[in-house]
Amino acid sequence: MQEAMSVPNGKKRLVLALAGYGTVGTGLAKVIEENRDWIIERSGSEVVIKSILVRDVKKPRNFPVPAGATLTDDHEALLNDPEVDVLVELMGGIEAPKKLIAAAIRAGKHVVTANKALLAEQGLELFELAAEHGVHLKYEASVCGAIPILDTLKENLAGNRIMRLVGILNGTANYILSEMTSNKLDFATALKQAQELGYAEADPTLDIEGLDAAHKLCLLTRLAFGVNYPFEQLPVVGVSKVEPEDIEFAREFGYRVKLVGQVQEVDGKIEAGVFPTLVHHTYLIARVGGAYNAVRLEGNACGPIFLHGPGAGDLPTASAVLGDILSVARGAYPNNTGFVRQVPPLANIMSPDEASSKYYFRVIVRDVPGVLRDLAGALAEQDISIAQAIQKEKGAAEVPVVFLTHEATARAVKAAVEGMKAKGLVVREPVYYRIL
Ligand code: NAP
Ligand code: HSE
């Protein structure tokens, strides 16, 4: 083994306090052990886990506690050790990790976290605090698992104006939709599998209701556009109500149903949201399967870029966490927000009602003469025109009518649905999704 190079601060050991020893925490310990020599070659520093915070010190673990490390449930004690250089926060939640991270920053320690919920909902003050104390607050693992999208935006593509970013940002939701599509699994079974594989959040509502993807979209919007789109204002629809019929109908038209997060600048305004979306099967995004994630972005110099890779799970996420740790070990200068200013201005938000898209509709109607004409009429009243339509199960009393529209605003689509209901044309609440 080659003699380790010295790092700028002259240390050859980077000491970590780990908060959380679940899926990602144990994954990190495993990679640090497996790649010990390689880490020294890459960073000139030995990376050592000294203490690990958990809720229950007696609980069996997926990977042994590293030799020399202690397991504790004492939040205060974790940071009192002056030897600790970096807090690695992998516990999840908002209040407890926020307190811990703020205390670590105030104590002059660097922070690496995978916690998108905290950073999206309450992160701005932590970035300000980190800047005041001149420490790293790194969070590559918080968005798209192993895919290096945050540093790509902060560093490699920093010279570009980004015009549009579209992504599959949640591994659990993508796993569920992929299993429902390819293996005809029901929603509950697919979710259970995603949980067993370590992809889902401790509260899987965040995954299936689109909130985790929305957290990630907030972080991406800050880095790509330099503005803050408050999480609470982002339009979000999850996958919990996606029905197998819609996956099948979409397939007949040549589309796949995906949970897509997207943000773009339109006439100086930011339009963003997370929605189940039909994506044509020829698009790369449509081919992202299982717990994989992908981001497609367009910059004014780089053109279109597509990044694809594992979006969740122990080792993929640990890979991103360790990359951040090594950057601290090398003595890199903190570039936490990707901008000179540490607090982004509020985005000039386009009203979600004005967002324009093509749409997929599935409506259940009574199979009587003139019903298609009347449906088309309800759409035409809102200036929406039909691009393709199919009617299924002719002869039954109630039949699904499925159609794709040309571009329409969300406002017009809602008004058309209200019109269909008011005229008594539909026997169930219509289903409609955007088309990418
Ligand atoms: P996890 O398996 O549920 O592990 C959480 C760990 O944190 C457990 O060891 C738990 O202790 C500990 N913990 C939780 N709350 C605590 C508290 N108040 N005090 C002390 N310890 C506490 O979660 P995970 O899947 O590893 O996720 C961790 C973080 O990474 C989350 O922010 C998540 O959003 C993020 N993330 C996860 C993935 C993924 O694929 N799983 C990917 C990217 C980012 P006990 O074990 O004693 O209960
Ligand atoms: N629960 C998240 C997902 C973990 O399924 O994508 C990765 O952030």
From TrEMBL:
The modification Glycine radical is found at residue 20. Pathway: Amino-acid biosynthesis; L-methionine biosynthesis via de novo pathway; L-homoserine from L-aspartate: step 3/3; Amino-acid biosynthesis; L-threonine biosynthesis; L-threonine from L-aspartate: step 3/5. One of its GO terms (biological process) is methionine biosynthetic process. CDD domains: ACT_HSDH-Hom (cd04881). NADPH binds at residue 116. Pfam families: ACT, Homoserine_dh, NAD_binding_3. NADP(+) binds at residues 19-26. The active site is at residue 216. It is an enzyme of class 1 (oxidoreductase). Residues 1-48 form the Glycine radical domain. Its EC number is 1.1.1.3. The keyword Ligase does not apply. Residues 360-434 form the ACT domain. It comes from the Bacteria. SUPFAM superfamilies: ACT-like (SSF55021), Glyceraldehyde-3-phosphate dehydrogenase-like, C-terminal domain (SSF55347), NAD(P)-binding Rossmann-fold domains (SSF51735). L-homoserine binds at residue 201. Keywords: Amino-acid biosynthesis, Methionine biosynthesis, NADP, Organic radical, Oxidoreductase, Threonine biosynthesis. One of its GO terms (molecular function) is homoserine dehydrogenase activity. It catalyses: L-homoserine + NADP(+) = L-aspartate 4-semialdehyde + NADPH + H(+). Belongs to the homoserine dehydrogenase family. This is Homoserine dehydrogenase. It comes from Desulfovibrio subterraneus.
